[in-house]
Design a protein that fits this description.
alpha+beta
């Protein structure tokens, strides 16, 4: 299942599936980080949409206090979303793999998608696994950052706010940002903040800084090579300017 942002070159043709373009080699997908959101086993009593919204807002405010960031509070949990939870609780979309806590969980992957032809980069967030109970909502943001040095400060290039409502929370569901032009050789990475709310009102949040990738101004990734005989890996620079 693919969900695309309403603007940008990746939404011009709604029939064009990003995963198909990746398989054809037109786009390159670079997973950067994994995010796990979990609660203990047992979903308890199903709350109303109003109760879920109130709990979700309180969790966002708590996350703001922890991170020092101002986060988007523009979300809505509808009665339809809550009703969908009953219908989808035991569908084939569920997976049997249990999370490390032995409870209910969802695993997300955030990263980069590179369009070398158009010299563009987008950030994406994808649901990789769902474990046991259906989540009511997943929200937050993915920040696309770049730097001329792997280990020094990064600057924000794009902030992508996303929401998965209950009917959208399925394995391989993906949302992507608007494209950002690649003009220079830089290190690129994603910083992800995610918040999940379960039907019983429990929440879990995660904040991860992703792996960085060195891309030249054409959007081509710096080659990774290991000598077949010595097993020595090719040197990867910390500076984007190799001149």
């Amino acid at each position: 299942m693919l969900l695309i942002s309403p603007s940008g070159s990746y939404a011009e043709n709604s029939n064009e599936n990003i995963e198909e373009r990746i398989e054809r080699g037109e786009l390159k997908k670079l997973p950067s980080t994994e995010i796990e959101l979990t609660i203990d086993s047992g979903i308890g009593e199903l709350l109303s949409a109003e109760e879920l919204s109130s709990i979700h807002l309180a969790a966002i405010e708590e996350l703001e206090d922890e991170t020092g960031e101002k986060l988007d509070k523009n979300f809505e949990i509808s009665e339809h979303d809550v009703q969908e939870l009953h219908l989808e609780e035991n569908t084939d979309e569920e997976v049997s793999l249990r999370s490390k806590t032995g409870g209910s969980g969802v695993k997300l992957v955030a990263g980069l998608i590179i369009d070398e032809r158009n010299k563009e980069i987008v950030s994406y967030i994808e649901i990789e696994d769902i474990n046991v109970a259906r989540v009511a909502m997943i929200t937050r943001k993915v920040t696309l950052e770049s730097s001329t040095n792997r280990k020094r400060s990064y600057r924000d290039e794009d902030v992508f706010h996303y929401t998965f409502t209950a009917p959208e929370i399925k394995k391989r569901a993906m949302k992507v940002s608007d494209p950002v032009s690649i003009a220079d050789t830089n290190f690129w990475r994603t910083v992800s903040t995610s918040l999940a709310t379960w039907p019983n009102g429990k929440t879990d949040a995660d904040h991860k800084v992703g792996k960085e990738f060195l891309l030249n101004k054409k959007g081509i990734e710096y080659p990774k090579y290991r000598d077949a005989h010595s097993r020595i890996k090719m040197f990867e620079p910390d500076e984007a300017d190799l001149a």
